[in-house]
User: Fold these one by one.
Assistant:
Number 1:
Amino acid sequence: MTHVASARTESTAAGYPLSLVQSAEPLTLVAGVDGVPAEVDNDELLAWVAEVAAMTQPAQIHWCDGSEEEWTAITDGMVDAGTLIRLNPELRPNSFLARSDAADVARVEDRTFICSKTEADAGPTNNWREPTAMKKTLVELFTGSMRGRTMYVVPFSMGPLGGPISQLGVQITDSPYAVINLRIMAKIGLEPLRQIQQDTEWVSALHGVGHPLVDDEGNAVPELTWPSNETKYITHFPESREIWSYGSGYGGNALLSKKCFALRIGSAMGRDEGWLAEHMLVLKLTSPAGRNYHIVAAFPSACGKTNLAMMAPTVPGWTSQTIGDDIAWLRPGSDGRLWAINPEAGFFGVAPGTSPKTNPVALATMEANTVFTNVALTDDGDVWWEGLTPEAPQHLLDWEGNDWTPDSGTLAAHPNSRFTVPIEQCPTMAPEWYAPEGVPIDAIVFGGRRASNVPLVAEAYDWQHGVFLGATVASEQTAAAEGPVGELRRDPFAMLPFCGYNMADYWSHWLEMGRRLGDKAPRIYQVNWFRKGTDGRYLWPGFGENSRVLEWIARRVDGLTDAVDAPTGRVPGDGLNLDGLEVPAEDLAEMFMVDRESWEIECDLTEEYFEQFGDAMPDELLDELKSLRNRLSKI
Ligand code: GTP
Ligand code: SPV
Ligand code: MN
């Protein structure tokens, strides 16, 4: 470990406004000396770590090697400090429960900023801050913010190490919770560190919880079970490929490899370099004849990506394997097709609703080596959440650590409580997860939570129409972000909170990708598992039965089944395989019903939505809106 307790002053090093520096005492780090790994072969990295240490003034620096011993040391340390609870090792070996602060339970979209040079580049759907002013605010907040803490330096690879689609990053954090989660979510340690050589491109990601253990006067400040700060900033600098996140320890706010890098910075990289970074699951579906189909699907947060990625098909003879449950990076390959990898190495999945019925694969995945956050604790030291069992245990400690009984009238687990677990523990993991070049994509699916209007499945007429389907996704908001749960909001491509640049430019980039792929482009579909009847019940059984929809998509891809033209896209008619499924004919009809009046209202809302993008709005999507209106006028 590198001890820098004496470096109690701000850095003069490049990049920080000099006006903030009181008395500079820059720190010099040298590879192989004082706990800096000999593997470090990038001067910029050394300088950055030194600058951050001089600014944040931690008690020590720890470079993570990603080893088992390191995991054990960190988890033991947290358990001793009371910031992590070890679960019963007989029931859930090497697994832990973390309880967050009640004010730090989800992504904070109103505190998330895209700091591109111009506001137009961030676009109307992102919060924008001028980069220099934002850095000044951040430097003030980060100054001294790690006093008394260990500053961890975590090198990581997104995607299989050394793969052509993979990317490298380094997260600095003062949160051991973030470190143990990162070790599950990405490939961390000395191997990725070795790959960051002098000229290698890498993303710097600085994270601080904002709760120093020593105050400005040098007095000790008590530790908290979940250190965080009321002031939160989740900021992105797409031009310099930097992330600065302050004040939150939770999920996407703190595991910077995930939404901040793989989606927000990733999407900006994709725009510049000709690829796509998407909020998509990746799965491999195999027919009874052994033909493999690779499908990506974009659904908004907590709308069923993990479920579909781990689905157990109910259609006889079909199997499904998991490649990713949240993020896909897609690139045209040398064969002209679109190839995808899952850049993550683990799942950060929603716990509530996960049960032997809805997702047995997820339950098998988390039998050991799992970090749970904000679920309930059973009396025998295991975990519980709403939906896990039909009946709740008689006594629990809820996600805040309070006694709980079924009569409490509160939720035992937070609705955005999560499990973090390595993909390698997933019994349905496809071996292709390791394939550096990824898998060739056959179909792209868009979906959301829509109680009305949107049919169970529809096929886009062509790529441009598919981009329109993606651009017009709306979904009922879930607990994955702070905000009014249940309210219908636009969430284009399920990327509203994750697009690192102007959403209209992002649509243009997708249209351009379609032109580049030409007749090798995957087909595009829209699905909706959440349509409700007038009585408020879900019309479609969902979960494993969703395989019926994927099977129809697979047959369409191979030209083995016809489809019927409908206003919002091509639909199966009587082409869905419903053998053995008891869904009343009226329900099925309702799932595909197109109500002209409510669709015309939807078109008006789309027009209004598109208007905010002004000149950046691609004409192709305005044309698609006209075509939709035209098709509706004929029914
Ligand atoms: P993020 O990790 O937040 O990006 O979300 P995700 O899309 O991976 O969410 P996840 O799969 O964990 O979604 C969980 C929620 O969707 C739970 O409330 C599930 O019960 C519900 N869900 C998933 N699939 C279905 C389905 O086919 N039908 C219905 N009705 N609900 C579903
Ligand atoms: C989401 O909200 O879409 C997630 C969880 O996948 S988080 O990583 O917290 O963003
Ligand atoms: Mn997500």
Number 2:
Amino acid sequence: MVLCDKGLFTLHTNNTTYQMKLGACGVLLHTYYGPRVEDCDLSYLIRYADRGFSPTPEEAGRDRTFSLDVVPQEYSACGMGDFRLPSLDLELPNGSRSADLRYKSFRVEKGKYALEGLPAFRGEEGETLIVVLEDAAAGVDVELYYGVLENYDVITRAVRLVNRGGHTVRVRQAASLCLDFQRGDLDLITFDGKHVLERRPNRAPLLPGVRSAGSVRGNSSHQHNPFVILCEHDAGEDHGLCYGAALLYSGNFQAAAERSQFENVRLTLGIHPWHFCWTLAPGESFTAPEAALCCSGQGFAALSHRLHRAIRERLIRDPWAGQPRPVLINNWEATEFSFDAERLARIAESAAAMGMELFVMDDGWFGARNSDEAGLGDWTVNREKLPGGLEALVPRIQALGMKFGLWIEPEMVSEDSELYRAHPDWAFQIPGRGKVRGRQQLALDFSRREVRDHVYGALKKVLSSADVSYVKWDVNRSLAAVWSAALPPERQGEVYHRCVLGLYEMLEQMRRDFPHMLIEGCAGGGGRFDAGMLYYTPQIWCSDNTDAIDRLRIQYGTSFCYPVCTMGAHVSAVPNAQTGRSVPVETRGIAAMHGTFGCELDPSQVTPEEREIIRRQTEFFKERQALIFQGDYYRLSDPFQNGPFTAWEHVSPDRREALVSVVCGPAQGAPPFLALRLKGLDPGLRYQAGGEGSYPGSALMEAGLPLPLPWGDYQARQFYLTAL
Ligand code: GLA
């Protein structure tokens, strides 16, 4: 609900309230964001005092109590007396670096706004508030967009700059979100890691100064995720005030939180200002990507439930929103580059017998791709490996009752490729400097239309040559040596963003041309796991690390923002290729059910008993997929605490069904008797816990479910609960 009353703008969702108010000097103040409150003007919370070294704007005259450095603002500027984190930084033709924003107008539109060329939540039944601020000297209007997804407790934001003046302005920074808090006692949680160990939650109280996390790698990155949480010091899974902020963007980003001198916090989130500079000529506009805000007064579980539901129902698009996903087998870990049609067909045959529904041919099927040193960019079938092409292979797979999928890496090129030999200038390299290789490959300049057209043309031909139901869209290096031969020197600061726009455009084109195809995102595993990608790719390969025990941590961290149905997770062979660890197949399967579930091994290399276990797990997963994907997800333990087990739970929306998964750690002598307290059940119902007896929901939640004593390392159990 959007209420606008004499300069007071209030947004209500079912459980939260967000408010801003036109203040002195025409400055748009931020008054409140938090659990829902009755309608009132919350600007009574804003206090004014003469603060030393906090200057006042000219319009304030002799009033020394109004300083941009002190008041909470809706969208911060810079260079004009606010020394805290900027949201907007403009370079005017005279070389000055500043921005100064005053309220201009507002309008309310039915339905939630969409953004051309950028991902955004949908909300046909929602509303959009647009508040326009103006920088008169720059001639720039700043349109602040607010989308209200009432039933999801999500407020989305986007920012559109319009140059209405007579001269060109250079945009040095345009954050998507600025959020001021009139308190300083908050923790920041960021989700950080590295290749093969992504999204570990790192939580710390904010100290005076700025703490930031971001990426300048061209991708959202393995190292930091464009999702952060701010929360009260004592907030936990089930209690405490917390805020989640996600950026729907897959390129360079910065999340920054500043605790300032007067114990206030400002959070900004948007495109990273490093090497960003957008030239805005008169009449032109620039749109900063969407950010989504969510708030919970009851801890992280409720925060995640709200975000998960919004992502599942309002970000992921048809035909995949709320729909089952195929259980797939991928040949990568089984074969890497060494395969031919016969080997693939054999893998597919055994996979079909295990109940798998989709066979994915990974890297190595095209060009001269016999190792990671060659072939990227040559998107034609390698006829030595696949003599009959896809035209022959796909029907063979389909004859087994399976669908067929393909791996691609469109944004990259190998120096040893026809494409690079024909167009060396299409790969990033700064003139006069050396090449920067990652995995022995170079990155294509996706800001250039002719590059994208060429790559897409080749891909479309392959994808049209057979019935391809799925594509795994990978990217396997960070961008470096970024310089575009197609842009003048003063526009080089646009290249990173133009690459992301180019990526989105191609993904959208692929969705249009192949509307029923499922696209899975991937970036050396989880290097581009963000809400922006989920708009195009409903699932993302969560990590190149398929070790079930490491995966528990990776998937746990991922789950704070992203729902289980977005996490690509597979059963792979042991000893694990990344860690050398051996974990029972039951456990590997249960870990993979914390995701889309599939297989990444050669079935002929595992014992018949293990194949039978995987077959049963596949069957079980298919039967429970709706519960796992659509149910509320509860983290029952924190795997980073090195406790005796890691546990999680899915509860159906009507609370009549639940699936509890428990994975124990390494074996120990005389293990303790443990009981696991469940969550989210109906206290008044009685549940049958598989063959373990039946108990009241209240007992299972307050007293717990007894766990069997483990025998051996990394044992796992699932308990399927149904209401009697
Ligand atoms: C990346 C992906 C893997 C696999 C390889 C192929 O690392 O994350 O799953 O597809 O590329 O080269």
Number 3:
Amino acid sequence: MPNMHVISQTEQAIDDIARNGYAIIEQFLPAEIISSLADEARGFQSSGLMRKAVTGKSQDSSSDSLRGDFIHWLGNPNSPAQHTYQTAMYELSAVLNRSLYLGLFEFETHFAIYPAGKGYAKHLDQLKGSQERQVSTILYLSQNWQSTDGGELRLYLDEETHQDISPHSGKLVVFLSDRFWHEVLPANRERISLTGWFRKRGSRLP
Ligand code: OGA
Ligand code: MN
């Protein structure tokens, strides 16, 4: 359950999304939940359950230069930390629906691990011709991230301007999926996150 602090930072985020299309919440979940989630991601990695991510453009290994992360999709929560995360995201979607009338319905989410030196080239999360993904979310999980570690999310605000967002642990970035081109800059250390998308009811194409 969110406390008053979480509710008020959520309200600030709603305001930011309404005004600018995106929001950054610095400490979305308690540090111990973040570190449990990071441990789980590393656990999936060491049990061989993280899979090389592919882009819509290319399924072969040459896509490595476009996207270098390994992912693991979450199903129903199967740990207390995952339950806390999924509950918080569900509550966020309820507030987005109430405040911005987004009609969000489903949430899909995966762990992502970028090895040092790997990134994700500039892209849009909404696949061409599909309005399935309405809102993108990224929760950063790497402990003690230093600004010199790199690995920023570069969010293109328009043709000329971008904002670089450092992936400090506990930070949640939320943005409208159809609005922002973005990329992941390579880091000099492993970078761990949970990426998610809220989908709209009935938006899945046949
Ligand atoms: C993605 C993505 C950004 C990030 O997974 O589609 O753009 O900062 N991730 O991890
Ligand atoms: Mn993306």
